[in-house]
Amino acid sequence: MRRQRNIKIIATLGPASSTLPLIRALFEAGADVFRLNFSHGDHKTHRDVFNIIRTLEAEVGRPIGILGDLQGPKVRIGTFVQGPVILRTEQTFRLDLDPLPGDATRVCLPHPEIFAAATVDTELLIDDGRLRLRVTKSSPDVLETVVLAGGRISDHKGVNVPGVALPLKPLTPKDRIDLDFALSLGVDWIALSFVQRAQDVAEVRELIAGRAGLMTKVEKPTAIDEITAILALSDGLMVARGDLGVEMPIEAVPGLQKRLVRAARSAGKPIVVATQMLESMIHAPTPTRAEVSDVATAVYDGADAVMLSAESAAGAYPISAVRMMARIAEQTEKDPLYRAIMNADKPKPESTAADAISAAAAQTAETLGAAAIVGYTDSGSTALRAARERPTVPIMGLTPKVATARKLAIAWGVHSVPTRDPSGFNEMLDIALEAALRDGFGQVNDRIVIIAGVPFGSPGATNIMRIARIPEAGGSGS
User: Among this protein's residues, is 76 annotated catalytic?
Assistant: First the structure.
């Protein structure tokens, strides 16, 4: 099944999309990667959904990526004795370590690290910023605050502390259990939440030990100060705009999104734009005009993927949301201005053989009117460097490793294909020509540009480019 677009779609699975018929419908509507959100659901539920995805993969004969998203050290308040309460602007309100249920005057905040980091005038945002408190007095176990913006507050709402680097470990005990479970299942990507510093990524990368790609979610402003080091340690980035829009001025998020997309593209690593992309489709059959423009902006910027969260996990119209996102992407990529806008931020090739070959392949394919670029890859590196160039022709990522093919499902413009392991260069050439013809990326006599690394199995060793024609049955490529 060939997609008629370059940008990929990630669909979160949940109560609205957890059966084989629904997941199949989401895939047919355009989902390339499925997200398992470990903030919700138990391990049995995630295992069942994982198995359904792999069953579907076998049915359709296409690699499908699976991303396991860890909850991370999310800070939350405790409970209230009589349910939700109303906080009024300018009233006082106390946060403490007392585990007893709260009321309209106080509530437990079971995170001693917040008390250690907060000082007078520190602002606390509750429930995605709907309520704002300012600290008037701090101690190791009590924060006295005044309510700057009041409203309804209920059990276990999240707390953000903008601009403060909290002494939180990158993984909670729950995250460690979930990480081990996700890796035992065989997910293709792990998404790391609430990263604050490069060391957080390094610690988790060591635990993953190459068993999955590491996708770092950027949702804390403190991470931006170390983004170069964080990106170097990550296999991909996700612009998680929900918490990011709470932790920093919301008007600054669009510019930051563009900078992060540019940085990831320059590094040749997948970049995902996420959160509230088609939010209104949780309850409505069509999105707002602003949401359509938001998705299109990510496409114009050259992001690798866009993601649906509650729209596909718990919304009333999950299939319509995926189909709508695919339609927006396809239409945007047909825009005559698409290439000019995306190429305005096109990174220059790095001074490596891999980038020299990849850049040459993109230019050669365009000059010759080739049908496709075929990258033979073991680790995925060759296909990712080809995708970094954002060529005008499709990219086929041929690999003898199914795990690599699944991981590449998230990469811009890459149609990943598991193949047999070639015994040498000539057999690799035959495999590439067969795959291009079989999967509809070319016809007899069409030219394709083939790139690879020799010797085979050497990650990042892209060093060969070959131009070949698809032969008639029984013929050989030239």
Answer: yes
217 is catalytic: yes
Closest among 181, 179, 183, 191 to 43, alpha carbons compared: 181
Q: Which of 145, 275, 297, 364 is catalytic?
A: 275
Tell me if residue 197 is catalytic: no
Cα atoms found within 13 Å of the Cα of residue 394, Cβ hemisphere only: 20
Residue with tokens 């007095």: 137
> Is residue 107 within 8 Å of 155, Cβ to Cβ?
no
Please count the helices (runs of H) and the strands (runs of E) in the chain: 17, 21
* Residues forming a β-bridge with 149: 132
Set 5, 8, 35, 132: catalytic member: 35
Query: Does 136 qualify as catalytic in the annotation?
Result: no
CA distance 220 to 216: 11
* Sheet of 142-149, strands arranged across: 106-108, 92-96, 142-149, 131-138, 123-126, 159-160
* pLDDT given at position 404: 97
What's 353-469's CATH class? alpha beta
**Termini Cα distance of the chain:** 27
Average pLDDT, stretch 34-62?
A: 97
**Beta pairing class for 92-96 and 8-13:** unpaired
Class of domain 85-160: mainly beta
Whose tokens are 């990650």? That residue is 459
CA distance 172 to 224: 22
Residues 226-272 have pLDDT tens digits of 999 999 999 999 999 988 998 889 999 999 999 999 999 999 999 99
Q: SS3 of 467, please?
A: strand
Residue type, 307: M
Q: What gap in Å lies between CA 70 and CA 287, rounded to an integer?
A: 28
Q: What is the pLDDT of residues 434-467, one digit of tens each?
A: 999 999 999 999 999 999 987 776 666 788 999 9
Intervals of CATH 3.20.20.60 along the chain: 8-73+170-336
Residues of the chain with CATH 2.40.33.10: 85-160
354, 355, 358, 362 alpha-carbon torsion, rounded to 10°: -170
Give span(s): CATH 3.40.1380.20, the chain. 353-469
CA–CA gap between residue 52 and residue 6 (Å, rounded): 26
Q: Provide the CA 319 distance to its chain's centre, in angstroms.
A: 19
Catalytic-role residue among 8, 132, 217, 323: 217
> In this structure, are residues 41 and 14 in contact, taking their beta carbons and an 8 Å threshold?
yes
Paired sense of beta strands 372-376 and 395-399, if any: parallel
All residues at 6 or more sequence positions from 382 whose CB lies less than 8 Å from its CB, including other chains: 354, 358, 375, 376, 397, 451, 452, 453, 462
Say yes or no: domain 8-73+170-336 is CATH 3.20.20.80: no
CA distance 284 to 278: 10
pTM (global) more than 0.85: yes
* Catalytic entry in 24, 76, 327, 339: 76
